[in-house]
Amino acid sequence: MVASPRMTSFRPRRTHHARVPIGWTTAQGHRDPRSGVGAGPLMWLTFAPVLRRPIRSFPTRLLASAVVAAIAVGACGGDGDDGSANTTTGVDAATDATSGEASVGDASSTVPGTSTPTPATEGDDPDEEDASGATATTAPSVTDGEPTEADDEFPVTIEHRHGTTTIESEPRRVVAAGLRDQDALLALGVIPVGVQDWFGDQPDAVWPWAQDELGDADPLVLDATQIDFEAIASLDPDLIVAIDSGLTPEDYELMSAIAPTVAPPPDHPDFAVPWQIRTMLAAEAVGRSELGRQIVADVEAQIAEAAAAHPEFDGATALVGLAGADGQAYAYGSDDVRSLLLVELGFSVPERVDEQVEEGSFYVTLSQENFDQLDADVLVWVGGDATSFDGVTAEPLYPPRVVDEGRDLFLPYDPLGGAMSFASALSLPFLVEELVPQLALALDGDPTTTSEYGR
């Protein structure tokens, strides 16, 4: 069974290494809705690309040459024995391997955090520094400690939007290169050697609901604003999981030249892969399909139990929103991962919102003159408390019954908004336990039973 972690069980973890945020804005500031904290709706935090954990010693020039050479070999189409047990196929796009960097989903994304830059924190003294300024240390592998062994037979072949990836043997050094992929791997008992940062400035980019699974491991935290191919290659991975990402064909070719890469599935927008699919694709990649099925079944059972305990949820409408730039708001469609939990609990997203979500997206942008479309039986805002959304809720067309009947909830990112944004097999058990009672209070339409996350 997947445990339902309680806040009282979350233990503080060390924070280390300098991080220098720049250009952060308020909850009403500029956000990029494509990358969906949702970076605005996904919430990209715009900060200087500083690794929160030093990469292993691997001279930058040699590493860049190795990546270039790997791609050159792949471009030749050779399939000789080069010592690699795993193979990747499916992309013919031309790539530029000279920079070692690419955007994460959308290079132009900028998004929010807070209006006040956070000062850099003191970290460990560097032991050794290479030409890039990174320091030398050794990353843990999945074999550190007592990992759960794979129960599937290899090779395993996984189809995705950029082709197919064949994994010949059980991977031992896995990089989580998607925004939420570390949660899926940790739920499966696989400790990544590298994880993708996203938002929230959590230790090791792992939130409280997943810290017990991480244990004392100290993975390399990859930059949130771009794909750092050199840092990934320095970890010597034998598998890269980039399911919850926006990998372009060019990104995929570069990444798969380093190690077999599982890209997003073809039938979902970038950053909008449902948690069940994320979990199962990761489980298949590491050879733990049976465990993945059990995890999914356990979490789905917990959600179903909560839904059965609240029959009033069935047929009620609910929206998840995020404040945007210039007084705008984002409303998530029913296919978005944040909305998915509400749908599984019995709620439905208003049709007028779903009808406006464009193909390949998962949200709709609403200007002030369209704020009446935010009307729902429950309106859930992620990213701050009630005062953080004054610029939105004070608008004349903000639905009056939502205000008068106490139907809106305001979830700060730490922890409930973060748990809703991650929507993972590890965050959902905690979220169901903590959020469901608040949804019931908001839905009853009685302003005297205001939720602690209400006004």
Describe this entry's structure for a reader:
The protein has a five-stranded parallel β-sheet with strand order 7-6-5-9-10. A five-stranded mixed β-sheet has the order 13-12-11-14-15. Strands 1-4-3 form a three-stranded antiparallel β-sheet, with helices on one face. The protein starts with 59 loop residues before the first helix and ends in a 12-residue tail after the last helix. The protein folds into two domains: 52-106 and 121-288, 3-Layer(aba) Sandwich (Rossmann fold); 295-449, 3-Layer(aba) Sandwich (Rossmann fold). Helix 1 crosses helix 5 and helix 6 packs antiparallel against helix 7 (289-309). It is globular, with a radius of gyration of 22 Å. The protein has 13 helices and 15 strands. The protein has helices at 60-75, 181-187, 208-214, 229-234, 249-258, 275-285, 289-309, 337-344, 351-354, 390-393, 400-404, 413-422, 427-443; strands at residues 87-89, 101-103, 156-160, 163-167, 174-176, 194-196, 220-222, 226-228, 239-241, 261-262, 318-323, 329-332, 363-366, 378-382, 408-411. Strand 3 (156-160) and strand 4 (163-167) form a beta hairpin. It is of the alpha/beta class and 455 residues long.
